[in-house]
Amino acid sequence: MEQMAPFMTGGSMIKTVSVEGSTFQEGHAMLETGTPRIAEAIGWGAAVEWLDRHDMKEIHSHINRIASWTAEQISEIDGITVYGDPTRGDSSGAVSFLHESIQSQDLALLLDEGGFAVRTGHHCAQPLMDALGVPSTNRASFWLYNTMDEAEAFVEHLRYVVDRFSDK
Amino acid sequence: MDDGRSWPEQLDSIVEEFSSCFDSMERYELLFQYAKRNPSPLPVEEWDDGNQVHGCQSRAHVSCDLDEEGQFVLRGGADAQIVQGLIAVTAIAVNGMSPSYVAAMSPEFADSMGIRSSLTPSRANGFLNMFKRVQEEASSLSGRT
After folding, report:
1. Chain A interface, Cβ < 8 Å to B
2. Of the listed B56, B97, B103, B110, which one is catalytic?
3. Which of A109, A135, A165 sits opposite B29 (nearest CB)?
4. Which domain CATH number covers B27?
5. Which of A134, A160, B14, B74 would give a disulfide with B91, using CB separation of 3.0 to 4.6 Å?
6. B64 in any annotated domain
7. Residue A120 has what pLDDT?
8. Residue B89 maps to a domain
9. ipTM for the assembly
């Protein structure tokens, strides 16, 4: 770091400024130009305080319940394969799946029409996707603010999309 | 490009068909149908880096050439049905036209079909990249006629 030069100049990284030249702070401070991320730090603090009022084990159970139910429901839809096992107690709230004839980007767009945003692609995990032998998957993720009603609506819309757009 | 429209006559009924759709889902359903009716598909075996359209979220490939009569032929394919449908509609528009006509054609037909407003910005850009690629090839091929 001692050998690095500042990539940008401005407030907070300056030590002295004169007509002849300037000197800079040392270490990481030399690279942190401008107003610090004050708003972000305050927002982060508020988020942590809010989360601290919740029981994390309870949150995990809530997420796990919704993800398990969703995975079970969509695995029964013709042509859908669910990857991973969201029923495991230590799994996250992500449900990865793929339909045999509706390409993942197409499916994401059609789900979006129902108001459901899912992640699509290889999820920055190409080696895993290669090992699974699939080019991409769709991924629905749930967290503490999601409800069973929303999961039910998602499954219902997915059924509708598959019924309308799959190669039968 | 007559009668105030900027697309060839063979697209009239398709533009009408898409623009009279009730909603986006119906438009997507039509694109899925056109994907299956691609008049000049490019088989997967012929997909390579040279004919890949960059800037598409999905894999899309187009190959342009002239037939024996010197008329334009677009062959194309994509892994996503919606993109494949867009390629099919574009092929219907440009196949059989002179390359100079294709080079000067506007992608406005996609707006009139109501397609571009339905697409996500990245997909709309992907369509424009594909169309631009076709036009560049048409421009290059028009020098041969």
Report:
1. 102-103, 105-106, 109-110, 112-113, 135, 164-165
2. B56
3. A165
4. 3.90.1010.10
5. B74
6. yes
7. 93
8. yes
9. 0.85
